[in-house]
Amino acid sequence: MIEDPQGVKSSFSEKMRLIRFRRKKENLRFWQEFKLVPRWLIWMVLVLFLIAQIIGQMVLHHQLANHQEVFGPELDSDPGAAGAALFAIITGVSLVFAVMIFMVGYVNKDAKRRGMHSALWTFLVLVLMPGYLVLGFIIYLLMREPLPYNCPQCGTTVGARFNFCPTANAICIPPARSASAKSRKPTSSAPIAAKISILRTHEGREVPSAPA
After folding, report:
1. Which spans in the chain are helix H?
2. 65 pLDDT exceeds 60?
3. C-alpha–C-alpha distance, residues 57 and 80, integer Å
4. Domain extents for the chain?
5. Is residue 89 helix, strand or coil?
6. How far is CA 163 from CA 122, 157, 158, 159, in A?
7. In this structure, are residues 165 and 176 in contact, taking their beta carbons and an 8 Å threshold?
8. pTM
9. Are strands 164-165 and 157-158 parallel, antiparallel or unpaired?
10. Contact 114, 148 (CB under 8 A)
11. Which residues, 6+ apart, have CB-to-CB distance to 159 below 8 Å?
12. What is the tens place of the pLDDT at every residue in 187-203?
């Protein structure tokens, strides 16, 4: 059986309209989304940052004690300034790596709650990260599914791409803006003209035309 291409296209357009509708309903805030990052991952990044700072300062003071050049004569002559410079460098590098690690953790958790393949999207972000940095994360944000919603009949969680709840056996479609327009009666004079034509045919007499 051959499906009507126009019907398939209209059905796809309707699904995409519903997806965009549900995305607009999402009230996402940064700190609420940041809570998706696992706590153990945040603590691990913090511990690694402290370890990097301790090791860096120890290596710096060891080299300065042995009169080895690190930043140049100006900073090396002042251990406090050299330590502050190293602290700033390690902090900057750590922030970059922390953001990347948090993005991976966020994608993994967010994909799970949206009913997507979390392992696949996490792998994509990791693969693209060394060469393209946040490109994988941007692709995920553009391609991710809307959040599941609760059926208005029974409250069961339904995937964003599905408009039918199997539990309540009901259709869960948000009202379209054009629904009221489609249900309105036509206001044109075509039905009046058709009635006048029928009267002329059956009665065989002239009936004045309806005003336009």
Report:
1. 5-25, 30-34, 39-65, 73-76, 79-113, 118-132, 135-143, 179-183, 190-203
2. yes
3. 11
4. 27-145
5. helix
6. 28, 11, 8, 8
7. no
8. 0.65
9. unpaired
10. yes
11. 115, 145, 148
12. 444 555 555 455 455 54
